[in-house]
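Hello,

Our lab assistant flagged a job as stuck in the queue for most of the afternoon. It eventually completed. Since we weren't sure the result was trustworthy after the delay, we are filing this so someone can double-check. Below is the sequence as submitted and the structure that was eventually returned. Let us know if re-running is recommended.
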Amino acid sequence: MEHPPRFVASGEPFPEPWDADLAARLVGAYALVGTVFVSASGERVAQYHGRIVSADPSAGIEIACEGRFAGETLVLPPATGWFGPARSGEYRLKTTGEVVVDPDVLSTWRIEDAAGG
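-- returned structure --
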Protein backbone atom coordinates (compact mmCIF):
# COMPACT_ATOMS: atom_id res chain seq x y z
CA MET A 1 0.00 0.00 0.00
CA GLU A 2 1.32 3.43 -0.89
CA HIS A 3 1.54 6.06 1.81
CA PRO A 4 -0.19 9.44 1.69
CA PRO A 5 1.99 12.32 0.48
CA ARG A 6 3.76 14.67 2.86
CA PHE A 7 4.43 18.31 2.16
CA VAL A 8 8.00 19.16 3.15
CA ALA A 9 8.54 22.80 4.02
CA SER A 10 11.41 24.39 2.09
CA GLY A 11 11.88 27.35 4.40
CA GLU A 12 10.59 29.65 1.68
CA PRO A 13 7.19 31.33 2.09
CA PHE A 14 4.43 29.36 0.36
CA PRO A 15 3.02 31.32 -2.60
CA GLU A 16 -0.64 30.86 -1.64
CA PRO A 17 -2.20 33.31 0.83
CA TRP A 18 -2.67 32.00 4.37
CA ASP A 19 -6.01 32.70 6.05
CA ALA A 20 -5.51 32.25 9.80
CA ASP A 21 -9.25 32.40 10.53
CA LEU A 22 -10.02 29.70 7.96
CA ALA A 23 -7.09 27.61 9.22
CA ALA A 24 -8.53 27.72 12.74
CA ARG A 25 -11.93 26.59 11.41
CA LEU A 26 -10.36 23.76 9.41
CA VAL A 27 -8.84 22.12 12.48
CA GLY A 28 -11.26 19.43 13.59
CA ALA A 29 -13.09 19.33 10.24
CA TYR A 30 -13.53 16.05 8.38
CA ALA A 31 -11.83 16.35 4.99
CA LEU A 32 -12.11 14.46 1.73
CA VAL A 33 -9.01 15.01 -0.43
CA GLY A 34 -8.36 14.00 -4.02
CA THR A 35 -4.88 14.02 -5.55
CA VAL A 36 -3.54 13.53 -9.06
CA PHE A 37 0.19 12.85 -9.32
CA VAL A 38 1.55 13.63 -12.80
CA SER A 39 4.92 12.37 -14.04
CA ALA A 40 6.53 11.37 -17.31
CA SER A 41 5.15 7.86 -16.76
CA GLY A 42 1.54 9.07 -16.50
CA GLU A 43 -1.01 10.04 -13.87
CA ARG A 44 -1.84 8.37 -10.56
CA VAL A 45 -5.05 9.27 -8.75
CA ALA A 46 -5.47 8.86 -4.99
CA GLN A 47 -8.17 9.82 -2.50
CA TYR A 48 -7.90 10.28 1.26
CA HIS A 49 -10.25 11.18 4.08
CA GLY A 50 -9.86 12.00 7.74
CA ARG A 51 -9.82 14.63 10.44
CA ILE A 52 -7.71 17.79 10.08
CA VAL A 53 -5.52 17.81 13.19
CA SER A 54 -3.40 20.89 12.55
CA ALA A 55 -3.03 23.82 10.18
CA ASP A 56 0.21 25.78 10.25
CA PRO A 57 1.48 28.40 7.77
CA SER A 58 4.94 26.80 7.68
CA ALA A 59 4.34 23.09 8.33
CA GLY A 60 1.17 22.73 6.25
CA ILE A 61 -2.21 21.12 6.88
CA GLU A 62 -2.10 17.72 8.59
CA ILE A 63 -4.86 15.15 8.24
CA ALA A 64 -5.13 11.98 10.35
CA CYS A 65 -6.35 9.54 7.71
CA GLU A 66 -9.18 7.09 8.26
CA GLY A 67 -10.49 4.20 6.19
CA ARG A 68 -7.95 2.44 3.97
CA PHE A 69 -5.17 4.75 5.16
CA ALA A 70 -6.10 4.67 8.87
CA GLY A 71 -3.07 5.35 11.04
CA GLU A 72 -1.33 7.29 8.24
CA THR A 73 -0.91 11.06 8.03
CA LEU A 74 -1.51 13.21 4.96
CA VAL A 75 0.34 16.54 5.03
CA LEU A 76 -0.71 19.13 2.47
CA PRO A 77 0.89 22.50 1.69
CA PRO A 78 -0.26 25.53 3.72
CA ALA A 79 -2.93 26.64 1.26
CA THR A 80 -6.17 27.26 3.13
CA GLY A 81 -7.89 28.50 -0.05
CA TRP A 82 -7.74 24.99 -1.53
CA PHE A 83 -10.37 23.77 0.95
CA GLY A 84 -14.05 24.37 0.34
CA PRO A 85 -17.28 23.30 1.99
CA ALA A 86 -18.65 19.89 1.05
CA ARG A 87 -22.27 19.26 0.21
CA SER A 88 -23.95 16.81 2.54
CA GLY A 89 -24.37 13.29 1.22
CA GLU A 90 -22.41 10.18 0.37
CA TYR A 91 -19.15 10.28 -1.57
CA ARG A 92 -17.96 6.98 -3.08
CA LEU A 93 -14.19 6.99 -3.58
CA LYS A 94 -13.25 5.67 -7.01
CA THR A 95 -9.81 4.57 -5.85
CA THR A 96 -10.85 2.50 -2.82
CA GLY A 97 -14.62 1.97 -3.08
CA GLU A 98 -15.07 3.48 0.39
CA VAL A 99 -18.09 5.66 1.09
CA VAL A 100 -17.55 8.88 3.03
CA VAL A 101 -20.72 10.39 4.49
CA ASP A 102 -21.12 14.12 5.06
CA PRO A 103 -17.50 15.36 5.07
CA ASP A 104 -17.08 18.96 6.17
CA VAL A 105 -14.60 20.08 3.51
CA LEU A 106 -13.25 19.01 0.12
CA SER A 107 -9.84 19.63 -1.44
CA THR A 108 -8.31 18.60 -4.76
CA TRP A 109 -4.61 18.70 -5.66
CA ARG A 110 -2.66 18.19 -8.88
CA ILE A 111 0.97 17.46 -8.14
CA GLU A 112 3.43 17.54 -11.03
CA ASP A 113 6.88 15.98 -11.00
CA ALA A 114 9.02 18.88 -12.18
CA ALA A 115 11.99 16.53 -12.60
CA GLY A 116 10.05 14.53 -15.15
CA GLY A 117 10.54 11.22 -13.32
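-- support follow-up --
The delay was a queue issue, not a problem with the job. The result is valid. Residues 7 and 76 are 5 Å apart (CA to CA). Residues 21-111 form one domain.
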